[in-house]
User: Fold this.
Amino acid sequence: MYVVVETGGKQYKVTKDEMFFVERLDCKEGHDVKFDKILFAKEGNSVHIGNPYLEGCNVVCTVLGEARQPKVVAFKYKRRKSEKKTIGHRQTLTQLKVKEITIAKG
Assistant:
């Protein structure tokens, strides 16, 4: 069984007991997070497709902590102007572990 969850403007395909990273969530480590924006669910041979989301379906995840992606460097340069600029950015992510998947029957 797997579901497609939407959070932070992105979509993630998750299964039970899977660990994955999402855009930073404002949650404490060890707390549970409940996602109800489920776009798609597959359970055995049955497939459930939301319009846009499935009613009565949710995914409960446990927050494991935060991590940071490697630095992305952007170098801006204008020729003949003696203008150079280096900009760096590191995105903060939240690591989650899927605890429970609930799919509404019907």
Summary: The chain has a mean pLDDT of 95. The CA atoms of residues 64 and 79 lie 47 Å apart. Strands lie at 2-7, 10-15, 19-23, 32-35, 38-43, 46-49, 58-68, 72-78, 83-89, 92-102.
